[in-house]
Write a structure and sequence with these properties.
single chain, alpha/beta, 19 helices
């Protein structure tokens, strides 16, 4: 049986995601099993997920996934490189033979070619040279790749992440092969296209109270309509309170704070009246907004650079169907897995997770849930 891994956020799950899961089985056969490694309460852009973890996991299983596991928070809030590397490591240990992802370019070969060049020692020298001119990291990377004759596949969001997946596969020496699904539509589209939706446009319409139903599979509409939603704006005062009371040492210990960026964030965190103003003041031409957003969220959650560099001790189980239940029996022999609601043996990381889950509740559109949310969760089982 083919076992395909998907590293995802499903923030939220929409028609494009369902199309990818269908395309996997169209290419490999209907007996193919799909494991989704999904971010939890927090997503890689440094924000709360719009819907709670288990609801998003349930949505994935209802629409074609067999098993959904949680990508640990330190990987989620890492750079694109760290996000990809953590996901590839877990899926490799799980025994996946393919990694499927969407790409604007649509083919594996050019992405693998760009990945190999980025692992070439000459690339680092070219990159440093370009960065020294003062351009952003993205521009410097593109310039370095052009100098080495790489195909132009690092300018669009899904292609960029696809190259990082390929780099992780090559660097870790795993046998997993990329299964690239062409990605239609614009990743950051302002208008919502129901046939080819972008998650950012879908979230925006949900926030504004517009019509989003046609952009998601029919079977998810009632699930979303009844769910509590979480937005960054709801927790702004909580974030500002944390930033204003953080010590100098705590700012210095944050991830992504090299070259004095932590000091710059500390200065604006103590003077600005909104989170957006803190981020806008901190970002520079070289360091993009997304990096600062992740720094702010790491500060809020208490995630330090040392924690980011340590592999989490387990992976949480979120949702599964009958096929996924069978996969779990095999997976437990390969990977330390934790059921929802189960107490972990590693107290320090588990305490961080519990703390993060309780803080997520502060961003809800509805009443704030009481503490201890993590231990009240239960695995979602969807009987076929």
């Amino acid at each position: 049986m083919n076992l395909v891994g998907v590293i995802c956020e499903y923030n939220p799950f929409h028609n494009g995601h369902m199309r990818q899961l269908r395309a996997i089985r169209e290419q490999l056969g209907q007996g193919t099993a799909v494991v989704c490694l999904m971010s939890g309460d927090w997503v890689q852009r440094g924000a709360p997920a719009i819907f709670p973890t288990h609801l998003r996991a349930e949505a994935a299983v209802r629409c074609g996934a067999d098993l959904v596991l949680e990508l640990p928070i330190p990987y989620v809030l890492s750079s694109a490189e760290g996000f990809a590397a953590g996901g590839v490591r877990i899926l490799t240990e799980l025994g996946c033979d393919r990694l499927s992802f969407g790409s604007e370019q649509g083919r594996a070969e050019p992405l693998m070619s760009a990945a190999r060049l980025q692992l070439d020692p000459d690339f680092d020298a070219r990159l440093r040279e370009a960065l020294a001119s003062g351009v952003s990291y993205a521009s410097a990377r593109a310039e370095a790749l052009r100098a080495l004759g790489a195909p132009d596949v690092v300018s669009k969001p899904n292609d960029i992440l696809g190259v990082e997946y390929c780099k992780a596969i090559l660097r870790q020496g795993c046998s997993m092969q990329p299964l690239v699904i062409p990605r239609a539509g614009a990743y950051h589209a302002e208008a919502l296209d129901p046939a080819e939706p972008s998650a950012s446009a879908l979230r925006r319409v949900m926030v504004d109270g517009g019509q989003w139903q046609e952009a998601v599979p029919d079977r998810l509409r009632s699930l979303y309509e009844e769910a509590e939603r979480h937005f960054s704006s709801n927790g702004e005062r909580a974030v500002l309170a944390r930033l204003r009371t953080l010590s100098d040492d705590a700012f210095e210990a944050l991830p992504f704070g090299s070259e004095g960026l932590w000091s710059r964030l500390m200065r604006f965190a103590r003077t600005e009246a909104t989170v957006d103003a803190v981020i806008d003041g901190t970002k520079t031409k070289r360091y993009a907004r997304a990096r600062i957003q992740r720094m702010v969220l790491c500060a809020f959650l208490g995630l330090t650079e040392s924690m980011m560099q340590t592999d989490p001790p387990y992976v949480r189980i979120l949702a599964f169907n009958d096929c996924g239940r069978s996969l779990l029996r095999q997976a437990r022999m390969r990977l330390p897995l934790l059921d929802s609601g189960e107490r972990a043996a590693d107290g320090s990381y588990a305490a961080f997770e519990a703390h993060s889950a309780d803080l997520y509740a502060l961003f809800s559109d509805g009443p704030v849930a009481p503490g201890g949310a993590l231990l009240r969760r239960r695995n979602v089982y969807i009987h076929a």
